[in-house]
Design a protein that fits this description.
This protein is mostly helical and 277 residues long. The protein is built from 15 helices and no strands. The longest helix has 18 residues. The relative contact order is 0.11.
Protein backbone atom coordinates (compact mmCIF):
# COMPACT_ATOMS: atom_id res chain seq x y z
CA UNK A 1 0.00 0.00 0.00
CA UNK A 2 2.76 2.44 0.96
CA UNK A 3 4.83 1.67 -2.15
CA UNK A 4 1.79 2.17 -4.35
CA UNK A 5 1.00 5.50 -2.71
CA UNK A 6 4.62 6.56 -3.14
CA UNK A 7 4.48 5.79 -6.87
CA UNK A 8 1.28 7.82 -7.31
CA UNK A 9 2.73 10.81 -5.45
CA UNK A 10 5.95 10.64 -7.48
CA UNK A 11 3.86 10.67 -10.65
CA UNK A 12 1.98 13.76 -9.41
CA UNK A 13 5.23 15.52 -8.53
CA UNK A 14 6.55 14.86 -12.02
CA UNK A 15 3.43 15.63 -14.06
CA UNK A 16 1.29 17.90 -11.85
CA UNK A 17 3.62 19.68 -9.38
CA UNK A 18 1.48 22.83 -9.25
CA UNK A 19 -1.54 20.81 -8.12
CA UNK A 20 0.45 19.02 -5.44
CA UNK A 21 2.02 22.25 -4.18
CA UNK A 22 -1.33 24.05 -4.05
CA UNK A 23 -2.90 21.31 -1.91
CA UNK A 24 0.14 20.58 0.27
CA UNK A 25 -1.79 21.41 3.44
CA UNK A 26 -4.52 18.89 2.66
CA UNK A 27 -1.96 16.17 1.97
CA UNK A 28 0.03 16.91 5.15
CA UNK A 29 -3.17 16.66 7.20
CA UNK A 30 -3.68 13.03 6.23
CA UNK A 31 -0.13 11.69 5.94
CA UNK A 32 0.87 9.64 9.01
CA UNK A 33 3.51 11.28 11.14
CA UNK A 34 6.09 8.54 10.53
CA UNK A 35 5.86 8.76 6.70
CA UNK A 36 8.63 11.35 6.53
CA UNK A 37 9.83 10.55 3.01
CA UNK A 38 6.31 10.75 1.59
CA UNK A 39 5.79 14.15 3.21
CA UNK A 40 9.16 15.35 1.91
CA UNK A 41 8.20 14.39 -1.64
CA UNK A 42 4.96 16.38 -1.44
CA UNK A 43 6.68 19.39 0.11
CA UNK A 44 9.36 19.25 -2.61
CA UNK A 45 6.77 19.82 -5.35
CA UNK A 46 7.66 23.04 -7.15
CA UNK A 47 5.20 24.73 -9.54
CA UNK A 48 6.38 24.95 -13.11
CA UNK A 49 8.15 28.22 -13.82
CA UNK A 50 9.67 28.62 -10.35
CA UNK A 51 13.47 28.67 -10.82
CA UNK A 52 15.78 26.53 -8.69
CA UNK A 53 18.39 28.36 -6.62
CA UNK A 54 21.22 26.20 -5.31
CA UNK A 55 21.32 26.76 -1.52
CA UNK A 56 24.85 25.32 -1.35
CA UNK A 57 26.26 28.04 -3.60
CA UNK A 58 28.66 30.34 -1.70
CA UNK A 59 26.91 33.44 -3.04
CA UNK A 60 23.41 32.28 -2.11
CA UNK A 61 21.37 34.86 -0.16
CA UNK A 62 17.67 34.13 0.28
CA UNK A 63 16.72 37.74 0.96
CA UNK A 64 17.94 38.70 -2.52
CA UNK A 65 15.71 36.25 -4.37
CA UNK A 66 12.75 37.82 -6.21
CA UNK A 67 10.60 34.76 -5.42
CA UNK A 68 10.45 35.54 -1.69
CA UNK A 69 8.13 38.45 -2.43
CA UNK A 70 5.63 36.12 -4.11
CA UNK A 71 2.96 34.24 -2.16
CA UNK A 72 2.44 30.58 -3.10
CA UNK A 73 -0.86 29.34 -4.46
CA UNK A 74 -2.87 27.71 -1.65
CA UNK A 75 -6.05 25.87 -2.66
CA UNK A 76 -6.61 23.94 0.58
CA UNK A 77 -9.27 25.21 2.98
CA UNK A 78 -7.00 26.91 5.52
CA UNK A 79 -9.66 28.63 7.64
CA UNK A 80 -12.19 25.77 7.78
CA UNK A 81 -10.77 24.14 10.95
CA UNK A 82 -10.52 27.56 12.64
CA UNK A 83 -14.08 28.78 12.32
CA UNK A 84 -15.02 28.15 15.96
CA UNK A 85 -12.44 30.68 17.15
CA UNK A 86 -11.36 32.62 14.03
CA UNK A 87 -13.01 35.90 15.09
CA UNK A 88 -11.19 35.86 18.42
CA UNK A 89 -7.93 34.95 16.67
CA UNK A 90 -8.30 37.82 14.21
CA UNK A 91 -9.06 40.23 17.04
CA UNK A 92 -5.94 39.11 18.88
CA UNK A 93 -3.77 39.61 15.80
CA UNK A 94 -5.26 43.11 15.42
CA UNK A 95 -4.51 43.92 19.05
CA UNK A 96 -8.18 43.94 20.03
CA UNK A 97 -8.16 40.82 22.19
CA UNK A 98 -6.74 40.21 25.66
CA UNK A 99 -3.46 38.29 25.86
CA UNK A 100 -5.45 35.74 27.86
CA UNK A 101 -6.76 34.56 24.50
CA UNK A 102 -3.50 32.66 24.00
CA UNK A 103 -4.37 30.37 26.90
CA UNK A 104 -7.83 29.81 25.42
CA UNK A 105 -6.26 29.07 22.03
CA UNK A 106 -4.23 26.20 23.45
CA UNK A 107 -7.42 24.44 24.55
CA UNK A 108 -9.04 25.12 21.16
CA UNK A 109 -6.21 23.30 19.42
CA UNK A 110 -6.86 20.03 21.22
CA UNK A 111 -8.89 17.19 19.78
CA UNK A 112 -12.61 17.29 20.47
CA UNK A 113 -12.70 13.93 22.26
CA UNK A 114 -11.49 15.58 25.49
CA UNK A 115 -8.00 14.17 25.04
CA UNK A 116 -4.91 16.26 25.75
CA UNK A 117 -3.54 15.51 22.28
CA UNK A 118 -3.34 18.40 19.84
CA UNK A 119 -5.39 18.17 16.65
CA UNK A 120 -2.63 18.22 14.02
CA UNK A 121 -4.82 19.41 11.06
CA UNK A 122 -6.13 22.26 13.22
CA UNK A 123 -2.58 23.15 14.25
CA UNK A 124 -1.45 23.09 10.60
CA UNK A 125 -4.20 25.54 9.70
CA UNK A 126 -3.52 27.87 12.64
CA UNK A 127 0.21 28.01 11.89
CA UNK A 128 -0.30 28.73 8.19
CA UNK A 129 -3.11 31.24 8.77
CA UNK A 130 -1.18 33.16 11.43
CA UNK A 131 1.91 33.15 9.22
CA UNK A 132 -0.08 34.60 6.33
CA UNK A 133 -1.30 37.41 8.60
CA UNK A 134 2.26 38.01 9.74
CA UNK A 135 3.44 38.30 6.14
CA UNK A 136 0.70 40.82 5.41
CA UNK A 137 2.06 42.90 8.29
CA UNK A 138 5.74 42.78 7.32
CA UNK A 139 7.71 43.48 4.18
CA UNK A 140 9.97 40.60 3.15
CA UNK A 141 13.14 42.61 3.80
CA UNK A 142 11.92 43.33 7.33
CA UNK A 143 10.96 39.82 8.40
CA UNK A 144 14.12 38.71 10.19
CA UNK A 145 14.61 42.04 11.99
CA UNK A 146 11.00 42.73 13.03
CA UNK A 147 9.64 39.28 13.89
CA UNK A 148 9.93 39.79 17.63
CA UNK A 149 7.61 42.80 17.64
CA UNK A 150 4.58 41.11 16.13
CA UNK A 151 1.54 39.42 17.73
CA UNK A 152 2.10 36.49 15.38
CA UNK A 153 5.48 35.76 16.93
CA UNK A 154 4.06 36.20 20.43
CA UNK A 155 1.53 33.52 19.55
CA UNK A 156 4.21 31.19 18.16
CA UNK A 157 6.35 31.67 21.26
CA UNK A 158 3.34 30.85 23.43
CA UNK A 159 2.95 27.58 21.54
CA UNK A 160 6.53 26.72 22.49
CA UNK A 161 5.34 26.48 26.11
CA UNK A 162 3.45 23.28 25.35
CA UNK A 163 4.81 19.91 26.46
CA UNK A 164 7.29 18.04 24.27
CA UNK A 165 4.62 16.20 22.30
CA UNK A 166 2.56 19.32 21.63
CA UNK A 167 5.63 21.33 20.68
CA UNK A 168 6.72 18.60 18.26
CA UNK A 169 3.38 18.88 16.43
CA UNK A 170 3.71 22.68 16.28
CA UNK A 171 7.27 22.56 14.95
CA UNK A 172 6.28 20.04 12.28
CA UNK A 173 3.54 22.45 11.20
CA UNK A 174 6.23 25.13 10.77
CA UNK A 175 8.45 22.74 8.83
CA UNK A 176 5.57 21.87 6.49
CA UNK A 177 5.82 25.43 5.14
CA UNK A 178 9.52 25.14 4.25
CA UNK A 179 9.00 24.41 0.57
CA UNK A 180 9.99 26.04 -2.74
CA UNK A 181 11.18 29.70 -2.93
CA UNK A 182 8.27 31.91 -1.83
CA UNK A 183 7.27 34.42 0.82
CA UNK A 184 5.87 31.60 3.01
CA UNK A 185 9.12 29.63 2.92
CA UNK A 186 11.14 32.72 3.79
CA UNK A 187 8.82 33.68 6.64
CA UNK A 188 8.68 30.28 8.30
CA UNK A 189 12.41 29.77 7.89
CA UNK A 190 12.92 33.04 9.79
CA UNK A 191 10.38 31.93 12.41
CA UNK A 192 12.16 28.65 13.14
CA UNK A 193 15.57 30.30 13.26
CA UNK A 194 14.22 33.06 15.53
CA UNK A 195 12.71 30.54 17.93
CA UNK A 196 15.99 28.61 18.02
CA UNK A 197 17.99 31.74 18.73
CA UNK A 198 15.67 33.37 21.26
CA UNK A 199 14.52 30.39 23.30
CA UNK A 200 16.10 30.01 26.72
CA UNK A 201 14.94 26.38 26.81
CA UNK A 202 17.56 23.99 25.45
CA UNK A 203 14.75 21.49 24.86
CA UNK A 204 13.14 23.83 22.31
CA UNK A 205 16.43 24.16 20.41
CA UNK A 206 16.89 20.40 20.43
CA UNK A 207 13.35 19.78 19.14
CA UNK A 208 13.74 22.31 16.33
CA UNK A 209 16.92 20.50 15.33
CA UNK A 210 15.19 17.12 15.57
CA UNK A 211 12.30 18.19 13.30
CA UNK A 212 14.71 19.48 10.65
CA UNK A 213 17.13 16.59 10.95
CA UNK A 214 14.64 13.74 10.77
CA UNK A 215 13.43 15.14 7.44
CA UNK A 216 16.99 15.45 6.14
CA UNK A 217 18.21 11.94 7.00
CA UNK A 218 15.61 10.33 4.73
CA UNK A 219 16.24 9.68 1.06
CA UNK A 220 15.99 12.59 -1.37
CA UNK A 221 14.20 14.72 -2.39
CA UNK A 222 14.42 17.25 0.41
CA UNK A 223 12.32 20.42 0.28
CA UNK A 224 14.36 23.46 -0.74
CA UNK A 225 13.21 25.52 2.26
CA UNK A 226 14.22 22.72 4.63
CA UNK A 227 17.76 22.76 3.22
CA UNK A 228 18.22 26.53 3.38
CA UNK A 229 16.96 26.62 6.97
CA UNK A 230 19.27 23.86 8.20
CA UNK A 231 22.25 25.29 6.32
CA UNK A 232 21.67 28.71 7.87
CA UNK A 233 21.33 27.14 11.32
CA UNK A 234 24.63 25.29 11.20
CA UNK A 235 26.54 27.88 9.16
CA UNK A 236 25.63 31.19 10.85
CA UNK A 237 27.74 31.64 13.99
CA UNK A 238 24.91 33.67 15.54
CA UNK A 239 23.14 30.40 16.39
CA UNK A 240 26.27 28.71 17.86
CA UNK A 241 24.78 25.42 16.73
CA UNK A 242 27.85 23.25 17.34
CA UNK A 243 28.23 24.58 20.88
CA UNK A 244 24.97 23.02 22.07
CA UNK A 245 25.37 19.86 24.11
CA UNK A 246 22.77 17.88 22.16
CA UNK A 247 25.02 17.93 19.08
CA UNK A 248 27.74 16.13 21.08
CA UNK A 249 25.72 13.94 23.46
CA UNK A 250 26.87 10.69 21.80
CA UNK A 251 29.41 9.74 19.16
CA UNK A 252 26.68 8.28 16.93
CA UNK A 253 24.60 11.46 17.12
CA UNK A 254 27.63 13.63 16.43
CA UNK A 255 28.42 11.62 13.29
CA UNK A 256 24.82 11.94 12.06
CA UNK A 257 25.00 15.73 12.42
CA UNK A 258 28.32 15.92 10.64
CA UNK A 259 27.22 13.64 7.79
CA UNK A 260 24.06 15.64 7.19
CA UNK A 261 26.01 18.89 7.40
CA UNK A 262 28.51 17.62 4.81
CA UNK A 263 25.70 16.66 2.44
CA UNK A 264 24.17 20.14 2.77
CA UNK A 265 27.29 22.28 2.50
CA UNK A 266 30.35 22.79 0.33
CA UNK A 267 33.45 20.67 1.12
CA UNK A 268 35.40 22.21 3.99
CA UNK A 269 32.52 24.38 5.15
CA UNK A 270 31.54 22.09 8.04
CA UNK A 271 34.92 22.34 9.72
CA UNK A 272 34.89 26.12 9.22
CA UNK A 273 31.61 26.41 11.14
CA UNK A 274 32.81 24.33 14.07
CA UNK A 275 31.53 20.89 13.09
CA UNK A 276 33.77 17.91 12.49
CA UNK A 277 37.10 17.15 14.06
Amino acid sequence: YYDGTLRVILMLVHDFPTFLAAYHLSFCNVIPENCVQLRNIILSATPKGVPFHDPINRNFKIDQLPEISQSPLILSNVVGPLMSFKNELDNYLRGQQSPEFLNILLSQLRKEDNSKELDAPKVNSVVLYVGMQGLARLQNDQISSNLSRTPEMELFQKLMELDDRGRYIILNAFANQLRYPSSHTHYFSCVMLFLFNESKDEGVKEQITRVLLERLITQRPHPWGLLITFIELIKNTKYQFWNHSFTRCATEIEKVFENVARSCMLPGAVAATGGGD
